[in-house]
Amino acid sequence: MTVVLPAGPGELRFAAAAGEGAGELVGHTMPLHESKSGRVLERRRSERVDSVLDDPEVNREVTRRVAARTGLWVPLIVRDRPIGVIEVHDKRGPDARFTDDDLRLAESFASRAAAAVDLSERVTRDALRRVVEAQELERRRLARELHDETGQALASILLGLKALEEKADDEGARSSIRELRELVVATLQDVRRLAVELRPSALDDFGLVPALERLAASFAEQSDIFVDFQAALADERLPDEAETALYRIVQESLTNVVKHARAQRVSILLTRTNGSVKAVVEDDGKGFDPKKETGGFGLVGMRERLALLGGRLAIESAPGAGTTIAAEVPVL
């Protein structure tokens, strides 16, 4: 028996499994539209198959790994929303086929399992939301301290060094002071850049569009990569959570461009359509295989942020073909 849950656009993930050979499936994914579980999830209707070899919808790889002959698929439904599928193979006994009574029993179990899965997901989402909120609060606090305290202290040191340089009689001393002032200036610039990366004041004071404009300009200046930024939101403010999520996703996408893409051009497009806001970041870099490269690109974090808001992430990339990342958040 396995429990299959959605895992991003067009995919299902084996969340739990029991039985011979089934444990190896946990954590693996399969295409939504290339499996009986995906079809049952879409149709929201239980199905019983007496011979998996004769059913074209059954995923052959899965049935081969568990040596299945028959199958039973029951959707997990909570508040009229399908959240997963229970998949069972080969009834014990001389006849491996399932009966109508077995189906009714599985549906009764599925109703309880669906409630448990839903509760677990809600607890996980609430915990993740608290973590994200705490991170942003800490980022805001650190950015403010760096800007207001550390930045002002360094600025005061610069003024003091300037006065000291003017009073120095020895050219060697003045030269040393000038070098020290240059070091303090560079440190002050680093502190201000770090404060902006932690939490740009423009995001809180003026909104998403001005914050992304400054991010794009800073990115182009520091990376020597051409950036084309376009926004169709004008001066409209979005909910704080939506603005923060979209800003972080664009920020992470640009970081990936510098680290991995070897790109020469990047475009950032911000639009609003059909009750949602979409941010699209596209580069002309070397690209990658989204199915293989997930750990170092921050894609899990992006998806988690969007999932908290009911949004979604779409990634289009291939080796040598650049990368497009589209993040969409519903906004009333």
Can you offer a commentary on this structure?
The protein has 332 residues and is an alpha+beta fold. The chain folds into three domains: 2-98, GAF domain (Beta-Lactamase, 2-Layer Sandwich); 131-198; 201-330, Histidine kinase-like ATPase, C-terminal domain (Heat Shock Protein 90, 2-Layer Sandwich), CATH 3.30.565.10. The protein has helices at 36-43, 60-65, 100-167, 171-198, 201-205, 208-223, 240-261, 299-308, and strands spanning 2-6, 11-17, 29-31, 47-49, 71-78, 81-89, 226-231, 265-273, 276-283, 312-317, 323-330. Helix 3 packs antiparallel against helix 4 (171-198) and helix 3 (100-167) crosses helix 8 (299-308). The two termini are 41 Å apart. A six-stranded antiparallel sheet has the order 3-2-1-6-5-4. The chain has a five-stranded mixed sheet with strand order 7-8-9-11-10, covered by helices on one side. The chain has eight helices and eleven strands. The model has no long low-confidence stretch (mean pLDDT 88). Helix content is 49%, strand content 22%. Strand 1 (2-6) and strand 2 form a beta hairpin.
